[in-house]
């Protein structure tokens, strides 16, 4: 992935949009982590913020940074969500590298404003990154067959420091599905969402309000 400097600049740029009294969706991954650390510093400086985590990892980090936490069903609305991405093209994203995209999509879509944080390596002309698809474990073979029907190549995501497959925070499995260049993200979104056994897929079409792209000396907003 991109440089940590660029990730930090992206995260801190988006965190500047956090204002006193806000409820903030806290994304998952190493770039969103920089935003969470910046929000933690704002809380230390006296800002009144409540965070809604999107994964075990973002909850852990938010607690470590001293951000008061709440849950989606305890707030009337989320003012702002800040989250990372694996790839972006135009206003569409592919997310799910951290296998947290099911809860991320709920929080990111519930927010009044959704800011994406990324380093330049995530930018593309067209989306062509494999699309993570969270599936109910018993359905993995039928979902895989349906993905192939759509022209995709599904690969069960194996864990690195655990024998067997990655298991999500929700107890499900992940198929990483390569489709090559995705000519119509909106159409693929509809197709994936209609497959029985699919819990959530990593295409976030038309959801991002701003994309903060970090560079080694600052950030650009797309
Ligand atoms: O899981 C996700 O969608 C994350 O946002 C993620 O994949 C981006 O992670 P990174 O900021 O560590 O590259």
UniProtKB/TrEMBL annotation:
Q: Where is the active site?
A: 104 (proton acceptor)
Query: Where does the record place a coiled coil?
Result: none
Domain of life here?
Answer: Archaea
Which InterPro entries does the record match to this protein?
A: NagB/RpiA_transferase-like, Ribose5P_isomerase_typA_subgr, Ribose5P_isomerase_type_A
Q: Family, per the entry?
A: Belongs to the ribose 5-phosphate isomerase family.
Pfam families linked: Rib_5-P_isom_A (PF06026)
Listed binding positions for substrate are: 28-31, 83-86, 95-98, 122
Q: What name has this protein been given in UniProt?
A: Ribose-5-phosphate isomerase A
Its BP terms in the Gene Ontology are: D-ribose metabolic process; pentose-phosphate shunt, non-oxidative branch
Top EC group: isomerase
Swiss-Prot/TrEMBL catalytic activity = aldehydo-D-ribose 5-phosphate = D-ribulose 5-phosphate
Q: Which UniProt keywords apply?
A: Isomerase
Q: What does this protein do?
A: Catalyzes the reversible conversion of ribose-5-phosphate to ribulose 5-phosphate.
Q: Read off the Gene3D superfamilies from this record.
A: 3.30.70.260, 3.40.50.1360
Q: EC annotation?
A: 5.3.1.6
- What is the originating organism of this protein? Haladaptatus pallidirubidus
A GO cellular component term found in this entry reads:
cytosol
Q: Which CDD domains match?
A: RPI_A
Q: In which pathway does it act?
A: Carbohydrate degradation; pentose phosphate pathway; D-ribose 5-phosphate from D-ribulose 5-phosphate (non-oxidative stage): step 1/1
SUPFAM superfamilies noted in UniProt? D-ribose-5-phosphate isomerase (RpiA), lid domain, NagB/RpiA/CoA transferase-like
The entry describes its oligomerization and partners as: Homotetramer. Homodimer.
Kindly list the GO molecular function terms attached to this UniProt entry.
ribose-5-phosphate isomerase activity
């Amino acid at each position: 992935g991109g440089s940590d400097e660029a990730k930090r600049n992206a995260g801190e740029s988006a965190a500047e949009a956090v204002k006193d009294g806000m409820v903030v969706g806290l994304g998952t991954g190493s770039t969103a982590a920089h935003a969470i650390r910046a929000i933690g510093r704002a809380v230390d400086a006296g800002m009144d913020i409540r965070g809604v985590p999107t994964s075990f990892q973002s909850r852990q980090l938010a607690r470590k940074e001293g951000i008061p936490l709440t849950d989606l069903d305890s707030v009337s609305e989320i003012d702002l969500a800040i989250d990372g991405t694996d790839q972006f093209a135009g206003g569409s994203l592919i997310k799910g590298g951290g296998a947290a995209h099911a809860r991320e999509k709920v929080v990111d879509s519930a927010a009044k404003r959704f800011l994406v944080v990324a380093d330049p390596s995530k930018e593309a002309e067209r989306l062509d990154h494999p699309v993570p698809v969270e599936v109910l474990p018993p359905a993995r073979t039928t979902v895989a067959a349906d993905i192939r029907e759509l022209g995709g190549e599904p690969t069960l995501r194996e864990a690195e420091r655990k024998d067997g497959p990655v298991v999500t925070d929700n107890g499900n499995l992940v198929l990483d599905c390569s489709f090559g260049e995705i000519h119509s993200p909106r159409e693929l979104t509809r197709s994936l969402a209609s497959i029985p056994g699919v819990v959530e897929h990593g295409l976030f079409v038309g959801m991002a309000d701003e994309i903060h792209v970090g560079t080694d000396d600052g950030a650009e907003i797309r």
